[in-house]
Automatic annotation (TrEMBL):
Domain named Arginyl tRNA synthetase N-terminal: residues: 6-85
Gene name in the database record: argS
Protein name: Arginine--tRNA ligase
Entry's Gene Ontology cellular component terms: cytoplasm
Sequence ranges assigned to domain DALR anticodon binding in this UniProt record: 458-575
C-alpha cells in the first residue's frame, strides 16, 4: 500500500489507539493535503470535545505516539497536525512502484462480475453524439474493471426491435436490399428512417403494409426475420466503423439488443402478474413501485404491457435485469445511459426489487450521462436543426489534429496515424474529463488544444518524456536507477505518483473516470515544473543525477500511459 494518505491514516489510527484506547482505532484522522506541509490531520479538533481535553493537548499526545514516523509532525495553530513525509520514505515507495508491473494498482479480491450496459444506439435512428458519450464513458469503465481483475460482461443494449421495424423493412423492400444496405452501412440511418416515416405518414397503403409487417416480424416469420437481419447487419457494420475509429473495445459478441429479450417478455409479464407485483390498470399491466408519484400525487406506473398488448422499453429492461442476475450471475450492473432516463431506471430497479429479481447482493447503478450541448448552450444540433452526424464530427476532429502537426515533417502515413490518435484523444478525453453526469459543451477548438486539461496535452506530456529517452539513447524500461527526490519539483512529482493505485481503485468503485483525468492532468503539470527546474539530459548534468531523473521520468511515463490506456485514450510515441 503506497498511497501516502492511506499509510498516514493507518499510522495516526494506531497512534490514536495507543494514546487514547483501542476504541479510537477506527476514528477517521481526517487527513487532507495541506498548504503548509504534505498533509494535515484535523482529528485532534474533533476528538478534543469528546475527550474533554484541549485540541492542542490531544495533538501533542498523538505526536508523542508517532516518534518512529518517517518524517516530521508539527502541531500548529489550535491543534492541527502538519505532516511532512521524509524523502527517504517517498523514494523507497517510488522505487518499489517502479519495480512493480502493476504500479501499485491492486486487484479486487474476491473479483466481481460486472455487467456494463453501454453505447446502446438505436438502429431505427442514426447513432448520434449522445451515444458517443455513453460509448466512451462505458468503455473506460470496462477497461478499469478489467484492470482490477473483475470479469466484465459488456452488453450493447441496441434498440433493434419494436414497431418502427415494420416500416423500415417495407422501405427496405421498396428501395431494394442492396441500395438499403449501402445506405445503412454508410451511416445514413436517419435518412433511411425519415424516408420510411414520410411514406408511413402520407401513404395509406404503405402504412397498412408496415403494420402487417410488424405482426409478421413478431410472429417470427422466417422471411421477415431474414429482412430484419439484412437491415440490422448493415446497421451494425456502420456502428462497428464508429467503434473502430474510436478504438472502443465493443465487438459483435457484446451485442445484447432489445430483440434478444423478445422471447422472454411474455414470461416476464406472466411472472410479474402472478406474483402480484404487477396489476392491471386501465387495461395495461403495471408495476407501481412504492415512493413514485406523478404530479397529481397519484402512484406512477411502470408499464409492463400496454393496453393493446404490446411490450415496451420497460418490459425489456425488466427481462434484462432478471437475465443479468440469474443467468449472468452479476454482482454489479452499470447502466451507462443518459440522465433523462433516470426515472425509468429508478423505477425499473425498484420494480425488480419488489419482484425479488434484484437481490441485496447485486447492485444496479445508473451511471448518468449528461447531455452534450452545442456552443449555444442548447442540445447539440447542426445549424439546420438536424442532429450532427457522428462520422462528420469525428472526421473534423481528425482534420483539426492533422493541422496541429502538419509542419512537423512526418511522412504521410505517420502523419495520418498521429492525426487519428490526437483527434480521437481530443474527443474522448473531453468526454471523460468532466463528471459524467454534467452537461457539457461540444467545442472542438477547446478539445484539440494542446494546453489545459485536454487529450492532446496529455499525449504531449508522454511524447515529451519519450523524446527525452530517445535523446538519452535508452529505453524507459531500462531506466532502473534509484529514484532520488532532491529538488522540490522532483519530490512533488514523486509524492503525487504514489497515489495512483488507490486512485484507480476509487475511480472504478465510484464510476468516476473524470477523477483519473484530474490525476493525470496534475501529473502532467508537476512534470512540466520538473522539466523547468530539473534538466535531465542537458549538458552539465552529472551522469548520476541524469540516471536518477530518468528513473523518475520512466515512472511518470508509465503512470501516464497506463492511466490513458484505462481511459481508452490512444498514446502516440511522437507528436
Ligand atoms: N437504446 C437506448 C437509448 O438510446 C439506451 C438503452 C440503455 N440500456 C438499457 N438497458 N435500457 O436511449
Amino acid at each position: 500500500m503506497t498511497d501516502p494518505q492511506i499509510v498516514l491514516t493507518e499510522r495516526v489510527q494506531q497512534a490514536l489507539a495507543r494514546a487514547f484506547g483501542p476504541e479510537h482505532a477506527d476514528a477517521d484522522p481526517l487527513i487532507r493535503p495541506s498548504q503548509f506541509a504534505d498533509f494535515q490531520a484535523n482529528v485532534a479538533m474533533s476528538l478534543a470535545k469528546r475527550l474533554r481535553r484541549s485540541p492542542r493537548e490531544v495533538a501533542e499526545a498523538i505526536t508523542a505516539e508517532l516518534s518512529d514516523f518517517p518524517g516530521t509532525i508539527e502541531v500548529s495553530g489550535p491543534g492541527f497536525l502538519n505532516i511532512t513525509l521524509g524523502n527517504a520514505w517517498i523514494e523507497a515507495e517510488a522505487q518499489q512502484m517502479l519495480a512493480d508491473p502493476r504500479l501499485g494498482v491492486g486487484t479486487i479480491t474476491p473479483s466481481q462480475t460486472v455487467v456494463i450496459d453501454y453505447s446502446a444506439p438505436n438502429a431505427a435512428k442514426e447513432m448520434h453524439v449522445g451515444h458517443l458519450r455513453t460509448t466512451i464513458v462505458g468503455d473506460s469503465l470496462a477497461r478499469l474493471h478489467e484492470h482490477l481483475g473483475n470479469t466484465v460482461i459488456r452488453q450493447n443494449h441496441l434498440g433493434d426491435w419494436g414497431t418502427p421495424f415494420g416500416m423500415l423493412i417495407e422501405h427496405l423492400l421498396d428501395i431494394g436490399e442492396q441500395a438499403a444496405v449501402e445506405q445503412l452501412e454508410a451511416g445514413q440511418g436517419t435518412e433511411f428512417y425519415q424516408a420510411a416515416r414520410a411514406k408511413f405518414d402520407g401513404d395509406e397503403a404503405f402504412k397498412t403494409r408496415a403494420r402487417a409487417r410488424v405482426s409478421t416480424l413478431q410472429s417470427g416469420d422466417p422471411d421477415t426475420l431474414r429482412l430484419w437481419h439484412v437491415f440490422m447487419d448493415a446497421t451494425v457494420r456502420f456502428f462497428n466503423k464508429v467503434y473502430d475509429l474510436l478504438g472502443v473495445t465493443l465487438t459483435d459478441a457484446d451485442i445484447a439488443g432489445e430483440s434478444m429479450y423478445n422471447p422472454m417478455l411474455q414470461k416476464t409479464c406472466d411472472d410479474l402478474e402472478s406474483s402480484g407485483t404487477a396489476v392491471i390498470s386501465e387495461g395495461a399491466l403495471c408495476v407501481f413501485p412504492p415512493g413514485f408519484t406523478g404530479s397529481d400525487d397519484k402512484p406512477l406506473p411502470l408499464i409492463i404491457r400496454k393496453s393493446d398488448g404490446g411490450y415496451g422499453y420497460a418490459t425489456t429492461d425488466m427481462a434484462a435485469i432478471r437475465y443479468r442476475v440469474n443467468d449472468l450471475k452479476t454482482d454489479r450492473i452499470l447502466y451507462v445511459v443518459g440522465n433523462e432516463q433516470a426515472l425509468h431506471f429508478q423505477m425499473v430497479f425498484a420494480a425488480a426489487k419488489q419482484a425479488g429479481w434484484l437481490p441485496e447482493t447485486t447492485s444496479a447503478e445508473h451511471v448518468r450521462i449528461g447531455m452534450m450541448l452545442g456552443k449555444d448552450g442548447r442540445r447539440f444540433k447542426t445549424r439546420s436543426g438536424e442532429s450532427v452526424k457522428l462520422m462528420d464530427l469525428l472526421q473534423e476532429a481528425v482534420d483539426r489534429a492533422a493541422k496541429l502537426i502538419e509542419d512537423r515533417g512526418y511522412d504521410e502515413a505517420t502523419q495520418r496515424e498521429i492525426a487519428h490518435a490526437v483527434g480521437m484523444a481530443a474527443v474522448k478525453y473531453a468526454d471523460l474529463s468532466v463528471s459524467h453526469d454534467s452537461e457539457y459543451v461540444f467545442d472542438l477548438d477547446r478539445m484539440v488544444a494542446t494546453t489545459g486539461n485536454t487529450g492532446p496535452y496529455m499525449q504531449y506530456a508522454t511524447a515529451r518524456i519519450r523524446s527525452i529517452f530517445r535523446r538519452a539513447g535508452i529505453s524507459p524500461a531500462d531506466a532502473t536507477a534509484s529514484i532520488v527526490l532532491a529538488a522540490p519539483a522532483e519530490r512533488a512529482l514523486g509524492l503525487h505518483l504514489l497515489g495512483f493505485g488507490e486512485l484507480v481503485a476509487q475511480v472504478t468503485a465510484d464510476s468516476e473516470p473524470h477523477r483519473l483525468c484530474a490525476f493525470l492532468f496534475q501529473t502532467a503539470s508537476l512534470l512540466s515544473t520538473f522539466y523547468e527546474e530539473c534538466p535531465v539530459i542537458k549538458e552539465g548534468v552529472d551522469p548520476e543525477t541524469r540516471d536518477h531523473r530518468l528513473a523518475l521520468c520512466a515512472l511518470t511515463l508509465r503512470v501516464l500511459e497506463t492511466g490513458l490506456d484505462l481511459l481508452g485514450v490512444p498514446v502516440p510515441e511522437r507528436m
